[in-house]
Amino acid sequence: MLGKLAGAWLGRRVAGRNSGAKGALIGAGVAALARRGLGPLAAVAAAGYGAKYLWDRRNRRNRPSYPSEATPSPPGG
């Protein structure tokens, strides 16, 4: 329902004041495109988020952290 309302609003904005049928067709096209296109876009975004999470987790695990007192001092100092 929200897609139809958004499509109608966008169609009215694009078509202007005197072309109602043109706006209706554009609005229906936008709603259909959003219905088909947002699912794959969400899947790609979720896969990217998961990949970044795993990458950060891997880097955290492989890089040991030591306290600042345990770092060696430079020679001659």
Short description:
With 77 residues, the chain is mainly α. The protein has helices at 2-15, 20-62.
Description:
By secondary structure, this protein is mostly helical. The protein has one domain. The chain is built from 2 helices and no strands. The chain has helices spanning 2-15, 20-62. The protein is rod-shaped, with a radius of gyration of 27 Å. The mean pLDDT is 75.
Rg of Cα set: 27 Å
Helix content: over 70%
Q: Number of DSSP strands?
A: 0
Q: Which oligomeric state applies?
A: single chain
Task: Report the order of strands and helices.
Answer: HH
Structural class: mainly alpha
Distance between the termini: 71 Å
Structure keywords:
mainly alpha; 77 residues; 2 helices; 0% strand; rod-shaped
List the helices and strands and how they pair.
Layout: H1 2-15, H2 20-62
